[in-house]
Amino acid sequence: MTWDTASLNKSTLTFPAIQNLNSSLYTTSSQVTVSGEWSKQKFTCSVAHTASSTTTTKAVAGCTKSFTDPTVKLFYSSCDPRGDTHTTIQLLCFISGYTPGKIKVTWLVDGREATDVFPHTGPERVEGKLASTYSELNITQGQWVSQLTYTCRVTYYGSTYDNHARRCTAESEPRGVSTYLSPPTPLDLYINKSPKITCLVVDLASKKDVTLTWSRENKDIVYPDPLVFKDEFNGTVTVTSTLPVNVSDWLKGETYYCKVTHPHLPKEILRSISKGSGRRMVPEVYVFPPPKEELKTKGEVTLTCLIQNFFPADISVQWLRNGALMQADQHTITRPHKVRSPIPDFSAYFIYSHLVVRRADWEQKSEFTCQVAHEALPGSRTLKRSMSINLGK
């Protein structure tokens, strides 16, 4: 067995022939290692078999890489190994610095694909020639301290990129300072009329001499709220800063900046945010009364609001009873999930919200309303759907 590698330096290793099981035939293999500009080179392996007087050649071409690999970082919220096992722990997988393209995120538990978890993967954000996205997974603290290893696996152009996280301990080490910006919620934008941008800095070694400076593209003066510091269980510090913004400025696409400086940082961190541009899809809202079986057997009943086929993913949901706003802790809402569609390049989301009320309240003919706020809705950017035992819907 011989290799033709043209002008490239090479080293060849041919392995001994091994007889196949239940056969008189043999198998062997040869490996070549080259150095230099190999990506555009063609390699030829020639096999001469004396006993059969045959010669066979196979050629293989080097590959040209035309994309940038993603960087995968896995973060987790703070936790107390001695705390409530039902507390929610958030795992955040941040994928950045890759050439825009089809990317798949899978979560593994102890090396096996998790089928009973429901992560939320955010939309791809393109900045210049590179892109970033993220995937969030919520687990209980009981799962987190049970010695299981959670892996965020990213598949991209046939390659996989993993990052792991394993249990919460008192000796957790800081994992490097990271900064995130989050936009105003539709609720604050269109209903409360008091939108705020949030700048979150995690994994600081200390709060001493840390500064967060806000600015905006048009150079107008900004007035952020006071910094909020939180000491995490692993010894790090989390800093949160919120910046009130004008509704009109935000909707017009103004860009805002958050700059973080700290003595332990090799250089300042600068993040920017603005209202995303592009296609919008108006949400479809449907409400469903309690199932008949529930009305017969339980003292509490469940009202459901389905919101589907909307884009972008940012959306807010509230419930009202007879026109009065109900407390947020009285209902639950799923994270946005992508709609599966046979239509190519179709991108939309759906969510559910469940409201549990006393059966007596439902039977008293109270009217319950699901109120949705989303930027694609016309006029006030809100939509209401109501139901009661009288309406039957």
TrEMBL record:
InterPro entries: Ig-like_dom (IPR007110), Ig-like_dom_sf (IPR036179), Ig-like_fold (IPR013783), Ig/MHC_CS (IPR003006), Ig_C1-set (IPR003597), Immune_Resp_Modulators (IPR050380). Gene3D superfamilies: Immunoglobulins. Signal peptide: none annotated. One of its GO terms (cellular component) is extracellular region. The keyword Disulfide bond applies. It is found in: Cell membrane; Secreted. Keywords: Cell membrane, Disulfide bond, Immunoglobulin domain, Membrane, Secreted. The keyword Disulfide bond applies. This is Ig-like domain-containing protein.
